[in-house]
Amino acid sequence: MNSTKREEVSSHLRYIRLELRDMHQMLLKEDLLPDAGDAREVHAQLDALHQLLSDKNNKKIKKQYGNF
Asked: Each residue of 36-67: pLDDT tens digit?
C-alpha cells in the first residue's frame, strides 16, 4: 500500500474510532442512543474505507488475471 493510501486509511480509521468512542460514551454515561445522523456518518466512513481497500484488491486481481 503506498503512503498516500496508508495515510487515507489511517485518517478514515482515526475518524471512525473517535466517532464510535463518542457514541459509546453517550450510551454509558447518558443512556442515550446516538443520533441516527451520526450513525449514518460512521457507516458512510466505513463504506468509504471499504471502497478504498476494495479498489486496491480489485486492481491486483485484474492485473493477475487480466489476460484470461
From this structure: 898 898 899 889 888 888 875 555 555 555 55
Grid coordinates given for 31: 443512556
Tell me the HSE value of 66 on the side-chain side, using a 13 A CA sphere. 7
In degrees, rounded to 5, the angle at the alpha carbon of residue 9 between the alpha carbons of residues 15 and 21 is 25
Region 6-23: what's the mean pLDDT?
A: 88
Based on its alpha-carbon atoms, the radius of gyration of the chain, rounded to whole angstroms, reads 17
Cα–Cα distance list, 10 to 1, 3, 13 (Å): 12, 10, 5
Tell me the pTM: 0.61
47: three-class secondary structure by DSSP: helix
